[in-house]
Amino acid sequence: MNELLKFLEIGEILTEVAVALGPLLLFFGLFQVFFLRLPAAYIVNLVKGVCMAFVGLVLFLQGVKVGFLPAGTEMGVLLGASENKWILVPIGFAFGFVATIAEPAVRILGFEVEKATSGFIRARVILITLASGVAVFVAMGMFRTVYGVPIHYFVIPGYLIILGMLRFTNPTFVSIAFDAGGVATGPMTVTFVMALSVGVATILGNRSPILDGFGLIALVAMAPILSLMSLGLLYSWRKRKRA
What we know:
By secondary structure, the protein is mainly alpha-helical. It has two domains: 1-66, no CATH class; 82-242, no CATH class. It has helices spanning 2-8, 11-36, 40-80, 88-101, 104-116, 123-147, 152-165, 171-183, 187-203, 216-242. The N and C termini lie far apart (66 Å).
């Protein structure tokens, strides 16, 4: 009963979503009045879509607040208390893969890439590539948290490799890769994986929840760039081989 009452306390979430959607509706209204002048049927469909998006965002964000964040933190505490700390690495890989597969923005990116390339780059290929890259870097983040490795040991070499790959990667894949870096750090990945990392760092006696618990999302943001640029190199190699 207490959990139900807590879930129903969504006044703050309602306000946040209304403030987020309000400016978008205002801009659209101005363009509609002065420039677009779209037919009434389109406006009706837009209003329906906005209402559904509003309700969906409110329910999703409230679910994250009362479900995903506490669950991720508790799982991190439970796993961090285990004697076999190494098990966090494969578990981090699995969670990173599953969370990315479930990320709506990643699927949208895949659909848009497939449509823009007329099917040359399949949405499923983008999805699997992103999920695999994020999974590897979440596993590296868990390794960093458990063994106290400084984050710059991962970030600096990673971006140096990215800069080196820019010279050889097809510009099409470079653009997709850098967009994917923001797409992969969506609400599913951030809320669950970050809560898991903070939970692990909290229970480990010689780790700081601030220094060791955070920073994982920086690795997640770097993972899609490396993985998709690697995919671009593979496509270029196959193209040269066929030629």
